[in-house]
Amino acid sequence: MENMEDSVVQKYVSLLTNAGFKAVFGDRENRDVVISVINALLPEGKKVDDIEYLPTEHQGKLLSNKEFHFDFMCKGTDGSVFIVEMQCYPDDYWFKRCVSYASRAYDRQNNRGEDYNVAPVYLIGLMGTDIVHAEPEKWVNKYVSEYTFREKETNELQDETIFIIFAELARFNKDLCDCTNDLERMLYVIRNCWRLQNQPVELQKEIFSRIFEACEIAQFDEVKRINYEQEMYDERRLNGELYTARRLGREEGREEGREETLNEMAKKMLAAGMDEAVVAEMTGVAVEKVRTLK
Questions:
Q1: Which of 11, 64, 128, 287 would you call most buried, defined as having the most Cβ atoms within 10 angstroms of its Cβ?
Q2: Relative orientation angle of helices 18-25 and 206-215, to the nearest 10 degrees
């Protein structure tokens, strides 16, 4: 997480932290905020009018007895499923993980394996870390990308099935005065609202006012504020431990201490419900070893 000056009291949560994301997106009172963010990032012509919150944990195949966890999941009135994932740390398998999540959500709608007339699934990834592009010159001033099944030459879309949409906030460095449309203003708010002390005059539309209202820590009730502060404390501590483990890894003669630190950190991540593959990627601990730490 990007840090503020110690002398400044943070007024708004950061949507690019686990605690801030959960406080805003996980609160059913903020369903209009969630709808606004989703609509801003959906393909042209697609719009959500209302949503129904869905469980974020689902049982995997019975033989594996494994659960998988979404950051946020909801369903539109037309049946479309929306998954919103927040990714702050580098992950070499991020795209494959998104494909896996979206595919499982798509397949779960077909309970009997007979009726394939199922609603599309949209996975939206809010990216606080860089995506490596093969041709970066094609991505200048392009921050939202869409991946789906299309015919290679004609670009024909036979049917709406699975869409993976990334908002690359790590690359979005525009000042507010340089934002030319509401999509760019939305990206600016998602990335920067935690830095601000007041809602800028350029963002006085109702859509943005509600986001600032939902992110204002002083507006949380006591239980929500206590939970948020505890989760932020845990997140900062985890970030500190991750930094320490990486630093130890760069120092010679500290392999034993480094391994112990990484294993302890992996245990805490698993206890917090993080996916095994993600824990392995973030800590550098082998997946096989991660599984023995539960």
A1: 128
A2: 120
